[in-house]
Amino acid sequence: MTTTEPTTNQDWFDRARSFTPGGVNSPVRAFGSVGGVPPFTASAQGAWLTDVEGNRRVDLICGWGPMLLGHSHPDVVAAVTETASRMMCPGGPATGEVELAEEIIHRIPAIDEVRLVSTGTEATMTAIRLARGATGRDLVIKFAGCYHGHSDGLLAAAGSGLATLALPGSAGVPEAIASQTIVVPYNDIEAVRAAFVEHEGRVAAVITEASPANMGVVPPLPGFNRSLAELCHEQGALLICDEVLTGFRTGPAGWWGREQQDSETSGWTPDIFTFGKVIGGGMPVAALGASHELMAHLAPTGPVYQAGTLSGNPVAVAAGIATLRLADPAVYEKIDLAAGRVIDLVHTELNRVGLPHAVGRVRNLFSFKFGDGAALGWSGTDEFGNPAPLNEDEVKRQESWRYPAFFHAMLDGGVSLPPSIFEAWFLSAAHDDEAIDAIAAALPKAAEAAAAATAV
Ligand SMILES: *Cc1c(COP(=O)(O)O)cnc(C)c1O
């Protein structure tokens, strides 16, 4: 190492900013909404991150979802290493792609076939092209606050990243493309019905997060997804259930599978699923899945074109297969329990300092919203009986200006939270007592900092 080699997070961030816009390859990593310098990770193991300065912190981002088993699980690392030593990019089909497809389909009885891609963005983009190709219609309905990746047509009112930057959508998306997307409020079935009436016979698909987690966690009202599926099918449109984040994280069959276990929410089947994050186990793998009949529209069997040099890459799918095979019911039970413990700890501390808040939770996915929900007009209710937001408009009313103080107190206390209040917190099977105790130790100061914060 020469003396000019960067050694601190600040050095690395400065160097990064000279060579990459904002110093990052995905905007939220730049700490724009919380301020300060993002730690540059030197190593990630289990539930812990270590930065280039040697600071060790509990990780509550888990790669934004993929690291269900914790970072660098030995079996996943072994599968990746073994595969990479045999091949990295064969250019033709290889066995791992078939095995990963089977692992996914076995867990989701509602789909017959999958197509593997490399990112969630590609999965939802292809799902929409498939829906348009199959229905011969153009329009897509999406919900404000739901994120489906960064393809042109899906960036309208797309949740956390854009909310953090206070952008309504993105520059560079032609009006002709934006006008093909109709945005309606989440959890509002009448708004969806009205959009169908207004654009009768022209809607190809409704795309929804199975349970939204990209405006913070805002669970669907019981039966909302079922009503959505019924309405789509009544109108000859397809329902695209985006489980890129929730799939194989909120349960062995994703959030859809969880809803099928309860009569209040069961009895619906989307036409197309999208997956990502967990199915790659930390490597670039995503997928869309549907019936034989629908998937037959995709090239090479059908006229809807889609392709990818790195699609089904053997090294990447090896990580996904190893992750899914290890993700048994005990893993989900463990993470769900850990989530309950963390929620109780935060809820108790925020109550202690007298800071009103709401919890959004689906199983092990959760986030907190700051503010007095009654005064802010939140129309839902959380698991503690407090008012909670039901859609993006309500979410945005929260006292988000309290979050930077909370976030930095946690970071200084050894806990790495998502650097935006509009993001979910993620746990893994590696979050044990040591990790949860570390979170508990950091919380009192953070709760006090949030309570003492003043609006900017
Ligand atoms: C993360 C995410 C995407 C986009 O996936 P990328 O791999 O980041 O392109 C799409 N939909 C949902 C629900 C997501 O959470």
**How does the helix and strand content classify structurally?**
alpha/beta
Helix content: 25-40%
Largest sheet: 7 strands, mixed
User: Mean of the pLDDT scores?
Assistant: 95
List the total number of helices: 16
State Rg.
22 Å
- What gap, in angstroms, lies between the N and C termini? 43 Å
Envelope shape: globular
Arrangement of strands in the largest sheet: 4-10-9-8-7-5-6
Associated small molecules: pyridoxal-5'-phosphate
The unreliable regions are none
DSSP, total strands: 15
Report the portion of residues in β strands. Answer: 5-15%
Give a written overview of the molecule.
It is a single chain. 38% of the residues lie in helices and 15% in strands. With 456 residues, it is α/β, with parallel strands linked by helices. The strands form four sheets. The protein has a seven-stranded mixed β-sheet with strand order 4-10-9-8-7-5-6, sandwiched between helices. Strands 1-2-3-15 form a four-stranded mixed β-sheet. A two-stranded antiparallel ribbon has the order 11-12. Helix 9 (254-260) links the parallel strand 8 (238-243) and strand 9. Helix 12 packs parallel to helix 16 (433-452) and helix 15 crosses helix 16. It is globular, with a radius of gyration of 22 Å. 52% of the residues are buried. The structure holds pyridoxal-5'-phosphate. Pyridoxal-5'-phosphate is lined by residues 119-121, 124, 147-149, 209, 214, 242, 244-245, 276, 286.
